[in-house]
Amino acid sequence: MLHGHRKLMWVCCAVVIAAGLLLFLSCEESLPCKASLQVSIRSGGIAVLALSRPVLRGTRRLWKRLFDVAISVLALVVLAPLMAAIAAAVRLDSPGSILYRQERVGEKGKPFVMLKFRSMRVDADPALHMAHVARLIGGNLSPGHLGPGPGETLKMRDDPRVTRVGRVLRKLSLDELPQLFNVLRGEMSLVGPRPPLPYEVALYKDWHRRRLEALPGITGLWQVEARNRVSFDEMVRLDLRYIEEQSLWLDLKILARTPLAVVSGRGAG
What we know:
Elements: H1 2-25, E1 36-42, E2 46-52, H2 58-78, H3 80-93, E3 99-105, E4 111-117, H4 126-139, H5 164-171, H6 179-184, E5 189-191, H7 198-201, E6 217-219, H8 221-225, H9 232-245, H10 248-264
Parallel strand pairs: 5-6
Antiparallel strand pairs: 1-2, 3-4
Helix pairs in contact: 3-5
């Protein structure tokens, strides 16, 4: 009987130590812990630990949604003349539609149609970008592997499919402005992980899919801290960091830093 009690004591100690390690590893050193731990006892007396990741829900999600809608409506009103000028430039520069509609993967893997100002020729072959993405994600290439000049990740340097106006729009990220309508439709947020293409997601490792746990954003932590200058895994880690720490205050800070990142054009393609 005494031996049984000692064995139970050691099991309990192991559970406590493991719980502490899991909570420690799930939190940033300088931030309050946001993970929650659940311990369940299954048949046979086996203790099972489950670490849940933070998901924005309830009042916090409502406030984020209200913030997204308010800022998007205001931005569309203020930027209407600029967007009209961009639409005219796209129309005059090359034949084709003004807007480009592309399927992307959103929160929880749900597909949606993302809007952009068209920056490529209408006969652009997606196979070129698919091969580029497969090379970068599969090899997790760092900027040093991509030759001289500013490194890029999922954007191709000197993409032959891009129009003259498109190069300017991409460099300043102005082609992203129509995504404000995606925000109003609830498919995107102002701030969040970059929305991936279906063939990108097909190449994901299991841990990469965690970046689909939040609404995709027009801008995000990756864009203001690294833009296209880091490897794919580093980009995902920045997205996961945002998901772990997301708050209205963090969104405000990222939005405030976005104009400088856009004007500097670091890594934009």
